[in-house]
Structure formats: C-alpha cells, structure tokens
Amino acid sequence: MKPEVVTNFSLDATDLRILAFLQEDAGVANQDLAERVHVSAATCLRRVRRLVEAGFILRRVALLSPEALGPVLQVICEVTLDRQGLEHVDAFEARVIAHPAVQQAYRVSPGPDLVLMAVARDMSAWTQVVAALFTQDANVRNVKTFFVLKRSKYDTAWPLPQADA
After folding, report:
1. Whole-model pTM?
2. Is the pLDDT of residue 3 over 70?
C-alpha cells in the first residue's frame, strides 16, 4: 500500500540533497549518504525515514540492464476502449497492471485511453500478452503498438528544486 503524501511537509535543502543522492543510488549506505549531505548518520537515517513516511520515497529498487538479461522486446502500446464508463476503464486498467509484462501504465487524454510500456522475451511471448490483454477483452476497440528499436534515454529521477551543494 502506498503511503499518503503529507501535503503540509516542506522540504529543506538537506531533504533535497538526500532525495537527489538517493535517486542516483538508493543502495548507498546510510553513513556514506550522511557524509555526502553533511549531517550525522543518525540525522540522515531519521530524515530518510521521515521522507518515506511522508510519501516522498515510495520504494527503493534495483534497475536491471535489459542488455545483460538477453534479447527482449520493449513495447509501447496505445489502447482505446469502447466503453468509457469509469467501471469499464478501472476493470481494464486492473487487468493490465496485474500482468507481469506491463511495466508502466498511464491513463492519458486526449487520444487513446491508456499508454502502456511492456516487455516480452520475443514475438511469440508478445503474442501471448496480446491475447491475454487485448484480443479477449470485448471493451478494447483499438491497440496501436510500437516496438522500441533503440532506447535513447531512460531515467527514473524526478527533477528537484536546486539544493545547496
């Protein structure tokens, strides 16, 4: 379950430096992070916990190299649904986000209803994803699929206000 973001929480320069460093390397040891942001280890740990509790840090993950994992299809799909009622869109969205091939899902406007980022080992595996998510769903009107030829940029960092160095 996602923590609620605390809206009356104000980030100071130390919080911003912590967030900036953690976006670069979430696996950094607390002692090293504390040295980088110029606070004690105890203060750093307390601030990181507070940032987690306030909902600024959702989770810490390892980013894997697609190239190291072997051949993989990276796919971007635009999905347009027939019925636009909230219950229909919610039901389709729930099925999509539960599927392991889907890495990201966005409701968008105008244009398609959802944009998906997905992966599959090969075209045969992608065909199974298509059957599971699109072909068997009577509410799917149109799917436009783009196969990624080259990933020119991939970043997970959110822009932050400038923190003191």
Report:
1. 0.83
2. no
